[in-house]
Amino acid sequence: MSEQKKAMNRALPGLLVAGSLAGVVAVTVGVLQLAPRVEGGPSGVLAGAAEPRQAENGEQPTPIEIQNAGAFMLSPTVGPGGKDVPLTPAKLEAPPPLAAVPTVAPIPPAKKAAKKARPTRIKIPKIKVNAPIAGVTLDAKGALGVPPLTKPNLTGWYRNSPIPGGIGPSIINGHVNTRKGPAVFNRLAELSKGDPIYVYRSDGKVTRFTVSGIEQVSKSTFPTNRVYGNTTDAQLRLVTCGGVYNKSAHHYADNVIVYATLSKKKG
């Protein structure tokens, strides 16, 4: 019995070592069975890994060489973002990410500036005026320009004055006559309080003004403030020449001015 007991004592360490190894193997196998398989490759084989060459004639098996392993290695700064969010490696066959949604709205295309409306025609039934309107500006001396004498039926709208129907005094002038005969405003002095004047615009609107007054003044004492001064409503001023014609100076001594107030606007 003593010899058998001694033999058992000598074998016990080996048995303990063998049992420990068997336990490690069992645990390892269990962990591997619980681990998820890597997608994108053969079952149980890492995607992109080469098959190991089987050992022959006692040769040692060839170590597995992992290809494209770098595809699973991401920079620490790459990830979905957010506090405490772990970085997730992309699959090899995954499509490229979508473009990031811009945080600043794109600048809309510039819109073409709306074309400023302008007066196109004036009609004064009482004196049978039906004339087109062109634009005029100030000359180098600061005097208001006039339509060319070659177009006696053309009137001129001062471009820096409000459009007829807008707040303020809109200025329209015209010749009283030319060397060839009467011009567009030849009968302007015949207008009186209450007479209607119609001004048509490029935006389709028609403005109706009612004469509120008329005067003839010397050009040397032209009432600039009364004609051009700001008003709180829509006004119209018609200006032409009048009085005595000075043949040596080739101009009239006076101006005839019609004052009118907006009474209706259509369109």
Automatic annotation (TrEMBL):
Q: Name one Pfam family in it.
A: Sortase
| UniProt xrefs under Gene3D superfamilies | Sortase
Residues in the signal sequence: none
Catalytic site: 175 (proton donor/acceptor), 241 (acyl-thioester intermediate)
UniProt keywords (A-Z) are: Hydrolase
Q: Does the keyword Hydrolase apply?
A: yes
Write one Gene Ontology MF term: hydrolase activity
Q: Does the keyword Hydrolase apply?
A: yes
Coiled coil regions, renumbered to chain: none
User: NCBIfam families, from UniProt?
Assistant: class_F_sortase (NF033748)
The protein's name: LPXTG-site transpeptidase (Sortase) family protein
